[in-house]
## 1
Amino acid sequence: MKDLFIFLLLLPALSYAQLQVSHHTQNPKEHFAIVDDTGTAGILYDAADEILVQRSAAFLAGDIEKVTGKKPDIFSSKGQTPKRIIIIGSIDNSPLIRQLIAAKKLNVDAIRSQWERFIIQTVKKPFRGIDEALVIVGSDKRGAAYGVFTLSEKIGVSPWYWWADAPVKKSEELFIKKERYVSKAPSVKYRGIFLNDEAPALRNWAEEQFGGFNHQFYEKIFELILRNKGNYLWPAMWRPAVFATDDPENARLADEYGIVISTTHHEPMMRYHEEWSRYKGGDWNYETNKEKLTEFWKEGIKRMGDRESVVTLGMRGDGDEAMTEETAVGLMKTIIADQRKIITEVTGKPIEATPQVWALYKEVQDYYDKGMRVDDDILILFCDDNWGNVRILPKKEDLDHPGGYGMYYHFDFVGGPVSYRWINVTQIERVWEQMNLAYQWGVQDLWIVNVGDLKPMELPISFFLDFAWDAEGIDAEDLPSYYVKWTEQQFGSEYAAEIAGILALSTKYSARRTPEMLKPDTYSLSHNREADQIIEEYQQLLAQSKVIYHKLPESHKAAYYQLVHFPIEISSNLNEMYVAAGKNQLYGRQSRASTNYYADQVKEKFFKDAELIQYYHENLAGGKWNHMMSQTHIGYTNWNNPPVNKMPEVSYIQTPTAAALGYVVEHGPSSRWSPGGLYSRSFSSFDPINDQQYYIEIFNRGLDPLNYTVRTDNDWIELSSESGTVQFEDKVYVSVNWDKAPAGQESGELVIAGVGQEFRVKVPIRNDLPEATGFVENNGVVSIEAPHFTQKIDSRDISWTVIPNMGRTNAAITVEPANSDRQVPGENTPRLEYTFTIFNEGDLSIDTYLSPTLNYQKNEGLKYAIAIDDEAPQIINVHEGDEKPDWEYPDWWNNSVTDHIRIRQSTHKAVKAGQHTLKIWMVDPGVVFQKFVIDAGGLQPSYLGPPESVYREGVR
């Protein structure tokens, strides 16, 4: 954890553009005063401009007031303005802006006729009676709004000021440096969110706050999207919600706000799923009910009118299901052709004038895979697998499709193998890797992400929309700095680095396995101290978070609690509950006296979960977020959520009164009779390179206190304690003093005694190891984190890129560009090398831990190559055997999204003892390496795999 904090602090902060705002100035000539001791600049827009520009002016005035307490006056004509003003306008619709251009006081050539760009600059004497103006000019209405909200963010108003209670940075004065700021063109044309799976949390919250999903609710959504530089929305659509008819103001105001409205992948022609049942049109079947469906769809296009929209084409079955059992390409082509005729007929415009999208969600992708293509003007929307893994990308020969490509991504999902809907479990590092992959493969026209209830997903929403806005401005190395930027935006700079580190680890931990999928046996209780390590990591993170929370001013605490602290506190508690349940089950089988204690712990943690949620609902921000955390998350037995949280099953045992001694040897040989080191008679070997410290866990099997001793006659064996009294269990740590230890392979002995029982345990040592370099074997295992290469070899056009913090344990590594061609492994092709040492000759197996990337190229599978030393490279197909598609929920896919990893194994024969080099070649781009585990016969099962091996300098 310490290393990550140091890493974060060493990296430069990521910045958007170079807009410089200050709260005081030493040189007034270099700064435009928004607010100073002489007064407040007015805000001027033209009444002839778009309504969004007028709204943006009002938002800016409100934001300046939030910061300074002084609200600028707003003017729609220049007659009565003060001498210092802020002018807001769009090039094509603002006479004020056109006057400045005609007078050559404003040059907009850099953004004219472009999509959503803006310029911010000062102009001397723009009009008679005005001394100076700060001009925010957009290439279009949204460009002007983005310019305004960029300034708002810089003066200290977070996009999440309302939705997360992010505090506003207060200042009596505001200045902006007099320079010309020209925005980039957005990387992706349409950038938006999908409110989905909204019951019970978001729906009940909206009902309580606004009376439902009405225009008061959606105005808050529209503003949030704009402040995050988005422009696109799939509205909430779970029954009974219908965006267009529940409140007629919804659609009208969306257009005023410049939000492009579309419908989801299974709601064609601007009609919502719930509407068909209200319409009572009969079967949702185009072959048997074409007339009614045509009538239904026509009304959707009529209702759309001239409002900015993207029309979903095609058809799926009623209720987000497959349309037919087979892939009916001919029928799908007919449906789309007929829908396009309806659009042309109703709008009276050429079909190309109405943006359209065909979504390849789940089984619909099969149409595309079998060769179906659509007209040139239709945008093709690819999809992930509902778990953040891109399913398909365009082939290079298809990149010139004029309609372009989009991606539907998920932070939330209802479906198999188990729904995840409660808190954020998405690492922005994985979002970057997958969406960077998509972007480099030409998916640059529409990015839409399922955000569930919205509220728990603040960080990944910001990142997704920021990355869509400037995909080429955020590289892998910038990701740690993004956390800093985002925390500065919410909380200011004082604790930003510490909070950034906490957030990075919090999302890493929650992404290892979704809360809904946690089980008592998820993390190993027997190997690698894994379960206890998980709990310790959470407790350390929670302690750090508490320190920050108590340092923050009162104005910051509500935002910090919901954005940072609550997910850590409740996840820590949840993991403690499941580990306690695992111990209850295991210790019950071992007849431990602590069995009942851990049953009580499970109960305590279960009810604490409810208490934390109650605090979130009733106390946080005065009850503002009531219902938002009400999604059930404990007790899943299938894909669907249980109606209520259900505590894990626990067992109670009838414990004898008399104390009785039991013990477990860490790293003791396991067998049928001594699983997990129970009553093992020997440790695994100790050696001076690994300098192991193992424990004996002594446990009581009775109610009376257990007095025990641990003794040895070997002066080179060191014990953390030699006696104790234990009610439940105690650990005695065993290590070796190598200055006293005998040479060669020897064995000492411990004697464990108590209540008339005595057990002897061998302590074998190996004090004759040869020189070792690189990663060193520890009792038959070498574990290597993928970014910790000894050497990397790049080619002229392809290089290895470390993605900091990505994955389950350390970080990840892949190649850039992500759209590189397949490589044949060779001396000069990209590869990674890792030096390691083993101590015995024999066969090795290597488990390569990979991010669960899908076969997005739709070929025989993505590949990499592996070898030890001068072996011929083995070509490993990551997707070998993946015959069924993910939407049929095959085991290979269920396992990869459950564990958030894919493990591929290779075997290597008769590898001699000594130093070796593991070589990994890039074959296909998109393969993301997290870890390598070399099994020389000692590997034990665990969720995360063994911790990284000791590294000996010499080659690295």
Note: Residues 1-17 have pLDDT under 50 and may be disordered.
## 2
Amino acid sequence: MGLLLQPEENAYSHDNASAMTSQRCLAGGRRLVGALASFFRITDRTFVFSLATTSILASKCLHIYIHSQVLSLGELIQWLPSLFVQDTVIILFLRFLLDGKALGRFGGGWFRFLATAFSTIVALLQLSLAVSNISFFLMIGGEPRWRNAGLVADSNTWAIMLTGLWAFVSANAGLIFGSMLLKSPLFFFAGLALDVVKAASGIVLSKICICRRSRSEIEYAPLGKEEYYDDVESSYPDSPGATAPASRRDPKLRMLYMGTAVFLFLQLLTSILQPAEQAYIFLSWTALAMPIVDYLRGSDSPLTNIIPVYEKSMDQKWDVPFTLGQPTHWDWLPNQGSAPAGFDDWYGDDKQHYDRRLDPLSHPNYDKDLLDSLKGKLSDVSIRNVMLIFLESTRKDVFPFKKGDYIYNKMAATWDDKRLPEEAEKRAETLTPNARWLTGDYSDGFDHQETPRRGGINVNKNTPSATYTLKSLTGGLCGINPLVADMNREWNYHIYQPCLPQIFKVLNNLNNVSATDGFTNRPFNNSFMMSVTGQYDHQYELMKGLGYLEDEMVDSEYLHSDKAVFGNITVEDVRYDGMPEPAIEQYFRDAFRTSRENDTRLFLTHLTSSTHFPYGLPGDEVYVPMVQDDANNHLQDISKHLNAVGYVDRWVGHLLDIVEEEGATNDTLIVLVGDHGVPVIEMGGASPWGVPSMGSFHVPLVLSHPHLPVIDINDLAEDRRWYFTSVSPGGQTISTRSMDSPRWRLLVPLIQDAEWYFSDLETDPHEETQVASFDFVGMLRAVEKKHGVDAAKWAEEAAFATRWWVTDNHQRWRYI
């Protein structure tokens, strides 16, 4: 019998379990709904609305502030209401959704719940956009380009973002706290505006006979203040009566309605009359639309639509062939086997290669006489080894650092007596002794008992090929212009010239050298060293494309791996991307020792890192504040950056000591070059990303050898009449200058919604009063008005030269 009853018991148990499961699901659903309801009660509708409104207005005000240069003060005041129309529409729509009584006719509690939920989602989205905009501005000094949002997918970017955590937290806290303070007045005044819109809409509808009641049957009376809050406690007194005319109920309320109506009318009128110019269109976009606009409009280049104003034949003048031709044959290239890396263009009948002879911008000087100071001085210069040091984020005006210069004066101004205190003054005096020794520049405002100089060529007006490190590396190692495209895309396209590591490897295989040539017939060893990550933005792939093999690379990942020759390193990271420079010391010393013992030559490239934000230094380093403690974050960053500059200067001196200890001083050419500068001094930005400040475009260049005379080059270090620098991230703006008019600079936008900038570096070296415009013709007219017709004509030709060069650049890189 028990066996017969068992199935029924099992069935009962199964049904019971199913019922219990259903009950749990229902209970879970109730808890979820209850949690959401509790959330919406805690964050009441006035707060949700205030959070959205505060975020919207903060984003728009920042948006206008960043691009305010494109409008005069008069234009900005005249059309300011029209710039907020989109924001007003969104704000009033959210106010309508959060007005419980207004929504009553559409449904019950669930409809209100859905409206509140939707509004909350919009508010959180607006908060996210506002926090992103504010954080980016606090860190960089500019505005994010949403077309580069894919960078977030790179795990190395997460570490970079953590360095801006303080800005993220500050922006969130400020917006949330401000929303809490302003929630009642914002909700109230938006209610006034919504009432005005309702009344105006009713009048319009009645006029076109949509509303069939006679005008006398329609009464538009303002609602009582308590109705705006809709069961939320009001900080305003109740109005006398909901049905009495506003003039009899509350004269102050009537004035508020009239003022609101006038403001909304001005917004409508100015938006209708607003000039159809790019500046107004761009400044009018609300934050919620900016990511979409950036994606949809980012690929359209304004260069395609420029027309000449002064020289009507400018189009024909720059309608010249591009620079690709048949490569020149070199007898020393191997005739058999596959093409050496970097020399593919020389193998194959159909290959084309960049030909300087076809380049209308080329202005070479190799056919001119040697500098007088170098004549007869080169025969004793022995160059067995070449050490190329890229100085990360290093400006020329800190190499060496100078008293009384722009940076020094900015720091001194933060102190009460407008002077650096003794400790800071001492640090400033001893900040860059090795830079002085290498450049031979002791005109720095400090007293010097001795002025030792190592010897070499110091270029005072050097400009980088790009303000993005990986692009600058490509330009420096290959002698080319980086690809005009955002981020490191060079690795995936045709690097159109062989790079130094590749050239040295081809030279290693030459057979036509004699035994009497000394070390010149010895092979080169290539090495690239840095103490930080090599994984950011496809750097591994790029270094391979530049000619470095895996075993020729030393970086943070290698140093922490089992492959490390000297074992897994134990040096602590000081920044998000790796360790301080001394982590590679053993490998640096070993490279010179191995070269000496094996009778080989050495080409060693080193990228420093400590001068990159956030300027992390080892714990045993003494930090000396160069600005007063209560100075703002931007000035504190200047102090941190300069301490890092001093640290790297001491590191460079230590490297020179190692070269001396390894007996290589007299036959090693040391080249030091800045990859780019930083706009921290002028703009407060920690990076040149999207910030074309001149502080990012003036970098040191030194060719140092103890047997070279001390030479200063004060002309522009270029071999082209026009020369161009890609502004980080590389495909959005080009900086254009010329040899014949070096005082002028034009920033050329390559994407929509980016400005044209013109500056006169003689009268405004820190570009505090640039001419800015979204319109090419408008920019030319503004330049003519401020700087004269010659400057405007120069800017016109600079734009056409840049257009030709960008297209030619894409041809060379086969980026088509």
Note: The longest strand covers residues 385-391.
## 3
Amino acid sequence: MVKVVATCSSNSRPRFTKHDALALCLALLIPATVIILILVSVFPSLGGPPLPDFSDPIKGFEPRGTKLSNKMVAIKKFYDFPRVWSYQPPQSQTGGQQNNVLSSLKRKRRSSQNTLERPLSSDLHVRMMFVFEASGGNENLFVAGKLKDACAIENSILSASSLYVQDCLGISDGMTYQCYSSFSLGNYIALLNNRTKCQDITDQDVSYVKNLLLRCHPYFVKQTLKENCASSSCEGVPANCTKYNAVYNIFQYLTDNEMSPSNDMFLKYTSSIPPVSGEDLSEEDLYDELFGQLKDSVPGREGIKLASFYFMGYKFDLFRIKLLTEVIYPALAMIFVFLIMWFFLGSFILTFTGLFCIIYAIGLSYCLYTMVFKIDFFPFLNVTTLVFLVGIGADDAFVYYDIWRQTCAANPHANIMQVTLKTLLYAALSMLVTSLTTASAFFAGVSSSITAIRLFGLFAGTSIFTNYLLMITYFPAVVALHEKFASSQQNSGMWLELFWGIKPEDNGNHLNPDDYGTLQLDESFDKSSLFSSAGQKFLRSLCESIEDQPFFAAFPFFDMCPIEVSIKTCTSPGTACCGVNASFPFPADTAEDCLRLASFLRNTGVLFDQQGKMVGFHFLIISDQSFTTSFTAMDDFWKSVTSWFDKEMAKAPTGLDKGWVGCRNLDLYALQMGLSEGTYSSLGISVAVSFGVMLLTTLNIFISIYAIITIIGIISITIGCLVLAGWQLNILESIVVSVAAGLSIDFTMHYGVAYRLAPDKSQRDTRVRYSLKHIGSAITMAALTTFLTGLMMMQASVLVYFQLGQFLMLVMVFSWLFSTFGFLSICSVIGPKDDFGQLNCCSSCKNEPEEETGNLAIPDLDKSPHDQNNKGCMDRKEKVVEKIFEEFGAQC
């Protein structure tokens, strides 16, 4: 009986034979069936987590654990846990005195009448907006004809919607329901001229309103003309400027900011705000209906057209839909990678297996992410891991199969097991180095304070490792199986809040954006410090100091500091609990009793728990800084606030020196600050880890230094190109900068390892040629596939996919150029020769007489197996492995 031993096949043409089909059944269908059965039956019974939910795309994009974010979380919990505190003590402690005072504070609400056929709503809420512009570049919209056309266009849009009447604000006579008129320039002109509707206005009406705006413009600029001047007194403002709040709303909401007396009130853009309630469940359906009506055609008339429209919150719904529908672009990238891998690997089954490893690695990482790490939140950024993994997985597949073919060529008579072990000896180390550096770059994101970035780094790094495990276990097995069969036949002013008695702590799970923990009361807060003479004086001086600050605008409620309100309440004739002629500061007991009595006003600032115990102090300040996305403006504002407050706390008496200031509108600023601080640390960690891994892998100081110099050059020119392309620091940009080190080292690492393992170590140019010949083709194909992955994503309208594709293209081009022409050039000129700069892996590695190594050759295209006499630990290991191969082959 003759034993048949499968050997390497020299046929490398693309093939898909019946043996491929059999291998496909064994290697893919059986594992896929097992996975499906686990997902359908076993996984749900074990309490498996639900599928990721991307209904809130911005969830998780917030810093956690920083000093500023702790304050913001404490404020959020302060409002989310009202049972922990109260502005009022229990009813029994204040008696019936509240009712008398409350009744004296009641005010009658004013009602407004107007002459419009469909009146305007009393409240203006911007939930929907249409913006109109002139068709010609120099045409003025402030004429009767164009304004009437704008009204007509809007009416045609809204009348075509069957859902608008269900969600609009309006009036009912018991029989019919009529929507209010939209807040538009045409309707306000009709209202101010006693017309019944927008279509009735004339050029004289428009001229009257234009002259009115000219007269009232100085008051708006000086901010003496404010919102709701029609229902409250605005000193020094003429009555016709406050009528119906028309002038304020026109300047604030309905005209562009370039319209002014200096350009004769030239109007380029005007907006219209329909009265949408936003409380009906059909609002999203209304937006869908209107968006479907407007996205394909732009309504307009002669001289005017619809320039844009705004639906509140609708962009997040569109983003959620686009995120899923535009998965087609990463899918197209995978198809192109599949075709290139098929061309390079020469086998459909091996190509399919390589992509299956990537998909399987994602699923396995998700299982670890949810079941082992116990993380419930899955941000949409984690989906982009698939894009990174396609390039990395293809790189590993190319490297393994390239070394496999070279090993087969060098050892034509070796059996499958011997070739597999020999290939893994080289490929596993090379893939481990690239996986470690790339995963470390992702894991460096865990140091960020932004929840979504931390979770992305954790998930992406885990995916890299799971993919590596599959590439050294599952993929080699399929390659061996495939070769065995083939060989036998083949992506308005902000409010500042001052607290005492509340801890600025975030005790929730920083990896779960839904878990903010509980509100923590400061047990060290002593109410005696608050009511002491020193405490009363300090708080009053604090109010005086606030009013002198450049960022101060006003106090809310009665436009008075809470301390001044308390003093006025305590000494007023109606509630003279401290005495009409009492002097400040008041006795501590008297001040406490008086504040308890006045607590129903809600602006005394004293906080009570459910037992009526005073647990803290809190009051609000309205700043003159409006919310903006500009980091510089917000940073200057917040630094001036904290600098002022820290100076005041240094003068505070004991017991009041632990106060802190916060603001609820600093989410974006905190995010930007977290990004600016975390990006550089992540980049530094990535580069440091890359150097460490390179040094541990090659054990050569100079190769590691040259590699890091190359990587720094790649990162620098890549980031420079991204800056020239208009990139600004944000979530994705932060990830890209930190990941750049991991992706930049791959090709340089492969060349460095090959340079280190070259047989002839005495000649630099020989070692460089060895590196380029053995690994150059695989690196070129890996760079090409990843470049095409990015190229396919350049057509996406989702910014994440577009920028990711742009980054992948740049980093692949510069990585290939710098590693091939830069790193190898450095090595050819000043690269280490022999063992210069080499660190010994163990002290027992010495030069010993060479032994016979048999016929199994190292995969070298230049020298035969008998010509390779290497020194060092690697030579010792290779000889031992070769002996094992000989004995194993003899037994087979």
Note: DSSP finds 28 helices and twelve strands in the chain.
